[in-house]
Amino acid sequence: MRVPMRWLREYVDPEASTDEIARLLTASGTEVGYVAHVGQHWDRVVIGRVLEVRKHENADNLNVVRVDVGDEEITLVTAAPNVQEGFVVPIVRDKGKLAADQVLEARRFRGILSEGMLCSGDELGVSADKDHIYELEPEAPVGVDLRDYLADDVLDIELTPNRADCLGIVGIAREVAALTGAQLQMPPAEPWTGAQHVADLVKVFVDDPDLCPRYTAAYLADVRLGPSPLWMQRRLHLAGVRAISNVVDVTNYVMLELGQPLHAFDADLLHEMTIHVRRARPDERITTIDEVERALTPEMLVIADADRPVALAGIMGGNNSEISDHTTRIVLESATFDALNIRRTSRALRLGTEASKRFDKGLDPELPPLAARRAIRLMMELAGGSPAEGIVDMRAASEGPRRIAFDRQDVVGLIGQDYRNEQIEDVLRPLGFEVQRSGDHYDVAAPSWRGDVEGKADISEEVARIVGYDAIPTVLPSGQIPPAWEDPVLRHEEEARTALAGAGIQEVKTYSFVGPYALSKIDAQAAWPAEEPDAALIPLYNPMSIEQSRLRTTLLPSLLQTAAENLRFQRRVPIFEIARVYLPPLEPLPNEVRRLGIVLAGRRSPDGWGNGSAPFDFYDLKAAIDAAFGAVRAPAPTYEPRGAAWSHPGRSAAILAASGGEPIGYAGQVHPQVAARFDIEGVDVYAAELDFAAIAALAREEVEVQPLPRFPAADRDLALLLNEDVPHEQVAATIRRAGGQLLERVTLFDVYRGEPVPPGQRSLAYALTFRSPERTLTEDEVGRAMNAIERAVTRTLGAQVRGR
Q1: pTM reported for the whole predicted model
Q2: Lowest mean pLDDT: which of 479-488, 558-567, 664-673, 768-777?
Q3: From the CB of residue 402, how many other CB atoms can be counted at a distance below 10 Å?
Q4: Residue 300 and residue 334: Cα distance in Å, rounded?
Q5: 181-185: which pairs have CB atoms within 8 A and are 24 or more residues apart?
Q6: Looking at residue 605, what is its pLDDT?
Q7: What is the mean pLDDT of the chain?
Q8: Are 569 and 525 in contact (CB under 8 A)?
Q9: Mean pLDDT value across residues 703-716
């Protein structure tokens, strides 16, 4: 928001420089991004009066102008078409400047010496007009330095969304008054009388008070449209608004001044002089004043006359009722609209305006009648006209001012600084709070324009920021420091991240939002494109786009999309993410669950040496999962041949805790049909998704330390012939149970199919390590253990020991 200082000082004029005011505002939370100094570099630029204009003798497109500049008369040559005798104009004299690096000197044009230059509004920075000489007010003092008359500073203020009260210059002035102790002067907005009451001329109906809590209308006849006075045009330009006509400029001026958007309708174009504030009807359309036809939906609020919409409420007027050169009667709208509805409509129509940017932050419901009175008064002054008496004011029930009770000690405790009662009152009263105090107890009524003040903490913040955050002393904490609390799940997440990154897998961060068909996209059996959105996904009320309109219940769609985008440029994509998913039902919020997702696609190694050119396979994925379990000191998981909806049949497994139970995740090859939906073709993709909270629950907090073995190990090999349907995990578990405490390690080192192994069977070869922590094992002890293992696998699994 741009705030011209000359305009601001009409409402509050402290004995402080522009830079000091900017510093105070920024320090109190109303940040001034930068200060523009209009006229900072002007030098030898003065006000002159045109005494004579004549054609140049040697150039048809040039005029020779004689100008009084106070201490002398000088001659100028100009091509400006609008210069006339009697004009009061800005003049750059010989060796003068408009910019820091631009010195203007006298020069001859076709034989006539021009002793200076006439300036356009654009060259001065006070108007957008580049083609005409800027005409000053007739009463401007001739010979005076233009900086003293016209130069200005402009604050560019970056507001936070909660400070809708500072969207007008009066709101900024209120802040400056509270910070400096200067008196706030409100702009005049007195009521008026008229021959008829406005309610007898304009009929207003608010059909949807939930979307329009307050609607006011005023009426003005016999209006004479024309340009606004120069002082208003200058202020609008410096504030970033284009001047149009006196009536339209007044609506913009009051919006910038008070923060309340206004809209003027041509009364002759309103059918039956009736206004309906209602939702749009199905298939209704409106052409706005930017000449764009827009399709409306029943969720959008419109202003309509007796027959058709004439404005998008709070956003933009329609071209069927806009002010034109033929307008003589106007109906002025000043209203309060529901912020959320304005925001949704503005985004749906991709139409943002100065009005919508204010309404969608929530405006003061007491402001509309004040703004209407101020605007009608200005229109009567600048455009003439005869008003109807009063204002139509349609208002829903009001809850009254928000009251907040607190003690002085509440403020002291929250801020950590001792404030006197007088300090607290001196802060709150200038900000518009009604204060009642009894001793150290306060009962405060928040002003209607401070909807962001809700409790003791907000009151404390007001006191701290106005008195000054720099007034809070820097002290060391006293008392006992509370013990640090560490979330074990977050610590285990960091351990797992470190292990996975060490395994060469890159961590990614993806959006928590997905499209409406995310689950259908990763279900190999579901039809695609899906006909209906996934019912299990939780919709967002205000999505950024349709592709981010649901909360995800699984990490895989986001990870597969990330893999697909990176496979366009890389030959390998190993990625993982530990993040939340959001599960229904809403009671009132979704259940947030931490998940670990891994996706491996492409070749195993970036350099391709050795077997690095081979593609990722299931065992790479399994190794990554085991690394995550090992990093948090959880027992290694077990795997069962079982698939998920997204996996390739026969190439996936359910992941179980070592103790068994329900699966805590799934791992395997992504079904080619699912991969194709993400535009991944010709590359095998392996993925896993696990419940990380379940992994963390298995973690051992203490690290077990074992001494290095003192006695030698005894190594034996065991080759078994088994049916194909007997899984390795079951064989290894059987061997461990039978081997007892002397069996230290079981390692599968060979799988063989083919002659002489019969069809339907395979050979599994294991390396077994036996060791005792107390003595060197004898051959007899190792032999008895091997016999027990062979008996167990033969009887339990139907295995045949090869080599026997």
Answers
A1: 0.69
A2: 479-488
A3: 15
A4: 18
A5: 181/14, 181/430, 182/12, 182/13, 182/14, 182/15, 183/12, 184/11, 184/12, 184/430, 185/10, 185/11, 185/12
A6: 78
A7: 92
A8: no
A9: 87
